[in-house]
Amino acid sequence: MTEAAAFSAPVVLWSHEEEERAGKPLLVLLHGYGSNEQDLFSLAGMLPQEFVVASLRAPIPMGPGFTWFPLTASIDYSLDAVKNAAGYAFGWLDSVKGDHPTVTLLGFSMGMAMATTLLRQRPADFAAVVGLSGFAVDAGADASFRDAELDGTVPLFWGRDQQDPVITPDKIEFTMGWVRKHVDLTKVLYTGMWHGINQQEIGHVGEFLNHKVLAP
Fold first, then answer.
1. How far, in Å, are 55, 73, 166 from residue 100 at the CA level?
2. Measured between alpha carbons, how far is residue 205 from residues 43, 70, 160, 212 in Å?
3. Residues of the chain with pLDDT under 70
4. Bridge partner list, 26
5. What's the pTM value of the predicted model, to 2 decimals?
6. Of residues 144, 214, 211, the one with CA closest to residue 184
7. Are 64 and 89 in contact (CB under 8 A)?
């Protein structure tokens, strides 16, 4: 049995009742390390109401919350654990995506690592990605990351504070190189936000979703 297969059933918070979801674009929220599905769910009311919002809980218990994959003391991770978490997310996504014309991912911190991983493993599946105060994983030459198929057309919003004390410089450097080569990047820097989300950024995310997902 793989680690992904050993995960418990997904826990998801929805913005709409089941009978109201079909036919609407889906926005999937992916929370950060040690948090849970309720953490980002308040954003649902601040973003374009055309979306059905689903907030997915990470599969691994971590303190009072959950994590997508374990971190070491040096904020490092195992690529196999990242791939297992992606398999868990895809298992749930595959069960719901048929009801929606598009799927967009929004991840905070480690959730951005997950969102970009999902995009890189299935480049054709997603309308856009929003990454907040996070990073993309360095996958080396792993063949399951299909970066060569990302030709710069998928819109990606990356918002961060340059004084963020959590995401280490090596992760920012890798992510900067990756986004410049592979996505249609909207990058915004904020001050005084640290490792967080502020109202100005949510306004920018709403504009991004309107222009890049809903308008086309």
1. 15, 40, 35
2. 10, 28, 12, 10
3. 1-5, 73-75
4. 52, 103
5. 0.95
6. 211
7. no
Query: Which phi and psi (to 5°) does residue 99 adopt?
Result: -85, -5
Per residue in 93-114, pLDDT (tens digit) is 999 999 999 999 999 999 999 9
Question: For residue 47, which phi and psi values (nearest 5 degrees)?
Answer: -110, 165
In the sheet that holds 52-56, the strands lie side by side as: 12-14, 52-56, 26-30, 103-108, 128-132, 155-161, 184-190
At 74 the pLDDT is 60
Candidates 84, 92, 104; CA nearest to 155 is 104
Q: In the block, which residue shows the tokens 């710069």?
A: 152
52-56 and 26-30: which strand pairing? parallel
- For residues 179 and 116, give the distance between their C-alpha atoms in angstroms, rounded to a whole number: 10
Amino acid 3: pLDDT: 43
Query: 43: which residues sit within 8 A by CB, 6+ positions away?
Result: 29, 53, 106, 197, 202
Residue 133: burial class (beta carbons within 10 Å; 0-12, 13-18, 19+) = buried
Helices 169-182 and 110-121: crossing angle in degrees, nearest 10, is 30
